[in-house]
Amino acid sequence: MSSYLRETAGGVILEVLLQPRASRNEVVGPHGDGLKIRITAAPVAGAANKQLLKFLAKTLKLPRNHLSIQSGTTSRNKSIAIQGVSKAEVLERLEVL
Question: pLDDT tens, 44-65?
Answer without folding.
Answer: 999 999 999 999 999 999 999 9
